[in-house]
Amino acid sequence: MSDTVQRPAAPSTANCTPEQYDALYERSVQDPDGFWLEQAKERLDWYTAPTKGAEWSYDPVDIKWFSDGTLNICYNAVDRHLDTHGDQIALIFEPDSPDAPGRSLTYRQLHKEVTRVANALKAMGVRKGDRVTLYMPMIVEGALTMLACARIGAIHSVVFGGFSPEALAGRIMACESRFVVCADQGLRGSKTVPLKANVDAALAMQGVSVDGVLVFDHTGGEIEMVDGRDHWFADFASDDECPCEEMNAEDPLFILYTSGSTGTPKGVLHTTGGYALWAATTFHYTFDYQPGDIFWCSADIGWVTGHTYVTYGPLINAGTSLIFEGVPNYPDHGRFWDVIDKHKVNLFYTAPTAIRALMREGDSFVTSRNLSSLRVLGTVGEPINPEAWRWYYEVVGKKNCPIVDTWWQTETGGHMITTLPYAHDMKPGSAGKPFFGIQPLLVDNDGNTLEGATEGNLCITHSWPGQARTVYGDHDRFEQAYFSTYPGRYFTGDGCRRDEDGYYWITGRVDDVINVSGHRMGTAEVESALVLHPKVAEAAVVGYPHDIKGQGIYCYVTLNAGEEGSDELYSELRQHVRKEIGPIATPDHLQFTDGLPKTRSGKIMRRILRKIAENDYGSLGDTSTLADPSLVDRLIEGRQNR
Ligand code: WTA
Description:
This protein is α/β, with parallel strands linked by helices and about 650 residues long. It has two domains: about 20-495, ANL, N-terminal domain (Rossmann fold, 3-Layer(aba) Sandwich), CATH 3.40.50.12780; about 515-640, ANL, C-terminal domain (GMP Synthetase, Chain A, domain 3), CATH 3.30.300. About 30% of the residues lie in helices and about 25% in strands. The strands form eight sheets. An eight-stranded mixed beta sheet has the order 12-11-8-6-7-14-15-24, with helices on both faces. The chain has a seven-stranded mixed beta sheet with strand order 5-4-17-16-18-19-20, sandwiched between helices. A hairpin with a 2-residue loop joins β27 (about 515) and β28. α1 (about 20-30) crosses α2 (about 30-45), α5 packs across α6 (about 140-150) and α7 packs across α8 (about 195-205). It is globular, with a radius of gyration of 24 Å. The mean pLDDT is about 95. Its cofactor is Mg(2+). One of its GO terms (molecular function) is AMP binding. It is an enzyme of class 6 (ligase). Keywords: Acetylation, ATP-binding, Ligase, Magnesium, Metal-binding, Nucleotide-binding.
C-alpha cells in the first residue's frame, strides 16, 4: 500500500523480528498465564516467584495477576543492578536553562539517594500503605521519591505540577493523603513555578490537612516553612540503609488521577507485580531497548507516561533515563534537538502536540543539529496526523529511525497497541498492532462484535498484567466507568478503525473526554469549574479540532439573571478556570449564550455544540427535538471559532 512506510531491516540485536512477533503474540493469547509467568520470571526478581497468572473477572470486576508472588519494584529498578551496573548512569538531569549545571546519577548514587529519601519519609512517619502526594517539577527528585515510596511500601500519588492549588487539594483529600512531597519551586522556560506556595495554598483550604511536607531545595527561591509540618530534605540525616519492603504482587503501587466523562477525576490504582512487568516488557520491546541506550521520554512524571517510561520502565531494564525540566521552545525551538545531541539520546519519546508545534517553526532548527545518535522515535498521547508523522520521520529521523506510535491509557499501565521497530511496517497515523497479550475488540454502539476491516468502539477482552485494578476508594465507579457500557469487556472510551492488514487507527474519544496538547481532560471538569463562578448559571464544554493542540476547549456559558456577557467577564472566566484547574484547562473560546440546546427532557445536545464549535454548522442534523429550535440560529450567530 502506498501509505505504508517500510520498517528498517532488523539488526542482529533486534529484540523482535516479524517472525518472533507472530510467534510470541500467538503464544501470549493462546496461553496468557504461561506466557506472562515466564516473562515475570525472566524480567523481574521476586522474593517468592508467582505460580498463579491471571485471576480475573469483568463481571463483577476483580482483577489479579501473580497473586502468590512477592517483590519490590524499587529493588527491581535499583538494587538488583548494583553488582552489574553500579557505575552505569541511571538518570541524567538536563535543567531548564542550558547554562545551568546538569547532573547525572549512577545506579550506585541512585541507590544512595533513594535510600535517603525513603529514610526521610519514614522519619516523617510514612508507613506501608500510606498515600504520599508528590507535587514536583521535572527533576530527578521526582523519580527518586516515587522509588522511595515503593521501597517502603507507601502508595504514591503524583499530581502534575501544572495543576492549581484547588486541583491539588482535591487530589490530596480524595486519597486521604497525609504527606506531601514538593520542591521549593520549579522552572519552565525561565519562569518559576511556585510549587511550595501552591502546596501552602492547598493546605490552607478547608478540609485539607496533612502531617508532613517534605521539601526539596531546587531553585533556592524564597518560600515559607511551617514549623512542625514542613521539613527540608537536607535536614534529614543521611543514612545509607533502608531495606526494601516485601510486597505482594497485588499490593497497591500508585494512584494517578485521570479524567473521565463524568464527575471529578478518578484515582486510578495500579498494583505492584503486574504493573512492573508491563513497564519492563513494553519498554524492552516497543523501543527495542539495547544495553547502553540513552532513553528520553519528554513526558512529565505527573502523567502516566512519566511513571512508566521516565521512571519504572527504563530503570527496571537497567537503562539510562533522561529527565528534562524545560520546554521545547526555550531558549529556542531547537532545544529538544540540542538535548538529544548533548546527551547522545538514542531513543526519543514525545507527544504529537510538541512535534506539530516544532514543525511549524521550520526545518532549520532541526537540520542545524546533528541528531545522528537517534535510533527509534516514539509518540504518545493523541492521534498523530500523517503530516506531523512524516516530518518526524523524515526531518527528525532522516528516514533512519522507525517510529512507534504507541496507543495506551492511564488505566492500561503501558503500551497496548503499537508497531515494534523492526517487526512491523509503519502506517503514518496508525498505532499499529496489539502488544503481546492484548486482544482488541471493536464493537458497535449496541455492543455487537465487528469483524474484519471495520470501525467501532475499542474494547479489550482478556485482562493484561498492567491493567488498573480499581478506582481508589470507589470500586463501583471503576466498574461503571469501564465495564458497564459493554458488559464483559474493558471499554477504552476510544473510537477505532481496523484496516485490512489488522492495523488499528485510533480515531479519538467517543465520550466526553477531550485531549488538549496530549493532556486528557473531562469536559465535565471544566464545566464544574465554570459554574463555580458566581455569575455563571450553566456551562457546556466541548472539544474542537486545533492545529497544534489536537483539540481546543470551547465553552458555552449562560449567565445568571441580570448578568451581561462582556470582554471583562470573558477574561475573568478564563482566569477562573485556570485557577480552579490549572493553565492546561484555559478555554480557547468562550461563547455567552441565552440558553443551551436541550431536548424536551432536558438533555444537552452536545452534537450540535460540537458542530458549531468546529464552525461546521451546515450539517447539524435533526434539531426538531430541541425544546427551543430557534436557539440554534442564535448559537451559530454568536459562534467564536470563525
Ligand atoms: C489518547 C496517555 C491516539 C486516547 C498514555 C486515550 C492516543 C487517551 C494515543 C489516554 C495514540 C493516547 N494515538 N490516541 N498513540 N495515545 N491516546 O490516560 O484517546 O493520559 O484514550 O494516557 O489518550 O490518555 P492518558
